[in-house]
Amino acid sequence: MEEVKILNIVAIINEGYSDLVMEVAKDLGARGGTIIPANGSVSAEAMKLYGIGIHPEKEIALILVKEDMVDPILKKLYEKAGTETDAKGIFFTLPVSHVSENILKQYTKPEKQ
């Protein structure tokens, strides 16, 4: 099987925007993801300093993708669901040191026999 580097895109968005995030990721080749309900918090100092409010109901999307898919997906996520949108999304990646065979199979071509 070919060597594939997998990264985890983490999207933290306001509640109700996870479908948008998953649609963007799938349109650019992701196979799916996991949505986790969450609650956000921010200190009063941060609200003053950055002039931000907090929407306490959040969703976290975890999306495993091949390394070469990350930049296009992040660029489109910033555009469609970033901090300047109602989704108020923040996005980052985390390294993945091990992944199950079923994930690897989704991103590799079958070897010719």
Give an account of the 3D structure.
- The structure is a single chain.
- With 113 residues, the chain is α+β, with helices and mostly antiparallel strands.
- The protein has a single domain (6-106), classed as Alpha-Beta Plaits, CATH 3.30.70.120.
- Helix content is 31%, strand content 27%.
- It contains 4 helices and 4 strands, in the order βαβαβαβα.
- The chain has helices spanning 18-27, 44-50, 70-81, 101-106, and strands spanning 6-14, 34-39, 57-66, 90-95.
- A 4-stranded antiparallel beta sheet has the order 2-3-1-4, covered by helices on one side.
- Helix 1 runs antiparallel to helix 3.
- The model has no long low-confidence stretch (mean pLDDT 88).
In short:
With 113 residues, the chain is of the alpha+beta class.
Top keywords for this entry?
113 residues, alpha+beta, Alpha-Beta Plaits, 4-stranded antiparallel β-sheet, 4 helices, 4 strands, elongated
CATH domain topology: Alpha-Beta Plaits
Looking at the overall shape, the CATH architecture is 2-Layer Sandwich
Strand content: 25-35%
Helical amount: 25-40%
Number of strands: 4
Question: How many structural domains in the coordinates?
Answer: 1
Q: Look at the structure and give the CATH class.
A: Alpha Beta
Distance between the termini: 12 Å
Report the average pLDDT across residues: 88
What's the Cα radius of gyration? 16 Å
Shape: elongated
Strand order of the largest sheet: 2-3-1-4
Number of helices in the DSSP assignment: 4
Order of helices and strands: EHEHEHEH
Low-confidence parts: none
Structural class: alpha+beta
- How many strands, which pairing sense, and closed or not: the largest β-sheet? 4 strands, antiparallel
